[in-house]
Fold this sequence. Notes:
By secondary structure, chain A is an alpha+beta fold. Chain A has three domains: about 1-85, 3-Layer(aba) Sandwich (Rossmann fold), CATH 3.40.50.20; about 115-175, ATP-grasp fold, A domain (Dna Ligase, domain 1), CATH 3.30.1490.20; about 180-360, D-amino Acid Aminotransferase, Chain A, domain 1, CATH 3.30.470. The first copy, chain A, is built from twelve helices and 18 strands.
Amino acid sequence: MKIGVIGAGQLGRMLALSGYPLNHQFGFTTKSNNEPSSMLGLVFNENECQNSAESIMNFADVVTYESENTDVEIIRNISKNVKVFPSEKSLFISQHRCREKKLFDSLNIPCAPNQKVNSLNDLRLALNNIGFPAILKTATNGYDGKGQFVIHSDSQIDKAWDSMNGVESILEGFVSFKRELSLIAVRGIDNDHKYYPLVENIHHNGILRKTIAPANRIDHNIQDIAEKYMRKILDELDHVGVLTIEFFETDKGLLVNEIAPRVHNSGHWTIDGATTSQFENHIRAITGMPLGDTTPIHNCCAMVNIIGKTGDTNSVLKMPNTHLHLYNKKERKDRKIGHINVNAGSVDELQKRLSQLKQYLPK
Amino acid sequence: MKIGVIGAGQLGRMLALSGYPLNHQFGFTTKSNNEPSSMLGLVFNENECQNSAESIMNFADVVTYESENTDVEIIRNISKNVKVFPSEKSLFISQHRCREKKLFDSLNIPCAPNQKVNSLNDLRLALNNIGFPAILKTATNGYDGKGQFVIHSDSQIDKAWDSMNGVESILEGFVSFKRELSLIAVRGIDNDHKYYPLVENIHHNGILRKTIAPANRIDHNIQDIAEKYMRKILDELDHVGVLTIEFFETDKGLLVNEIAPRVHNSGHWTIDGATTSQFENHIRAITGMPLGDTTPIHNCCAMVNIIGKTGDTNSVLKMPNTHLHLYNKKERKDRKIGHINVNAGSVDELQKRLSQLKQYLPK
Lengths: 363, 363
């Protein structure tokens, strides 16, 4: 099939690399001619085409998108002519924190206390209900910890609201969590479901640095609960494709933080670590192919993001059971330009490898 | 780096799929706009460019080729301006059976008795020396068993020579072999070497149907001998990139059949079965990157070619530990249009899977 992707970043790139062996072809909407996916299919440059969305609609048998920040209006228009997966509903809800929270509430899925904030006065009222500390977040377009402000006391309220630049926001109660976990799943057109194991995500300055897969010390129970929440969300959205849930693991169990209607940075380990990668499974799902086995191949895997600078690539390539994935992006502070997957037979071996790897990457 | 590939078939396609994650870019010389590699990089169409070889030379930092039937003259010209790996010498020798045999003799590597044949009279003289049965083969351009004639008796001599259409040929003594094995290795610019395990190849009507990796019941001794022969050839050719040797396994040990200066159909299992695939290792070698670990990930692997017709793809995709690789080629009798990799924990499990797979593929 011909697959149209809205966006041409690293996710589109890895979708294409996994989709060609299944005989699919790819087209991308781009903003420049040098994006990560530019060489991997046809490109419809937004600055050169009069209507790149229309062009991709004419090219594609099915359309998907890289980001939850995709314009819903565009997806709605494309959907009138070509199938789009995940559908408009998944996109509409997951691109807005208030809509997400409403979904979680309606499905009895626990999340942090929260309240919509559209003014300084709203913020004061919300803080009265939720209390300190709390986090003020833009309702849309947040990524890598951007558009967030932690409020510890009254004195920060004005500054917090100013930092939102007047956009629609949400106040969330601060969750004291042990760690962040995420669950990636895929749902097919025929309602088949497959789940990857819960993974542990380690952030620094709001940016994902490392994922450990599977997460260490996970009860069978917790995996089941996470899958139960996932299933409710997938079915409610009638979702087709990969969906990711980010969880806070707390003393009282799992709280859902947010969802993404797409392949996710915390699932990049699956390229070298699972029988079928998240990318291949997304492609299988949206093209109506049977879903692939999500079982890990190795006992322990890790994904380490390459952020800002590439580091000592040659030393990385010499490491055993280590796989390099670069995105053809220029080096720039805080930019994700690639990742490294490491596989190991034991937790100790994995930790040893990760310590070694640290030497070769920028601090 | 920018990698130029002469040819745009499935080998170029799989080289590109493995090379993008290492941040390389690809260009291909093509004969049409719908070849297996056409969507995976820039294309220089021989029918549209005045000189596609010159175009690819201008594009590329390094050039490689898909086939040992590539014109040596083209490679020689490109080499004057851009590095080409494997070099002209590897290509020149491996594209001609008589030159190959001379190389094996000079390195004391055992092969079948053989004699150059350029006329009917040559053929008679050669048969006097070699005896019946013997195989007459075109010296160049043979593939999938084409250009070969088995001669059992005097009465077939005229017909055999006629079938060669007057081209340069070679008569080889018929080898009674137990099975065909192949060894794939890679040599880097810095003279580093890595070897995959010997694999067993099963042919039907001269076309490779199936590879079992590693080959069953292989002495450590045989692997060592095969690697010793390989090393001699790699070093003599100063070869950079992947090289394949096809062996006959006989009661008296290994005889070399032929070599190919490239990734090989019998190495396609490495995509899902080895830590680093033959494709990634070829790309690493020709771009001066460190070579990757060649260790198998699973106890037993098999590669099954999809020939002529695609078969029941959906059933194949539902099988555990099974990976589909299609080449975007139209169905046609005896044409390799894809392959399937199967991984298993034991020989029995692998055989069970292969029996199941058989149902889904054309006979």
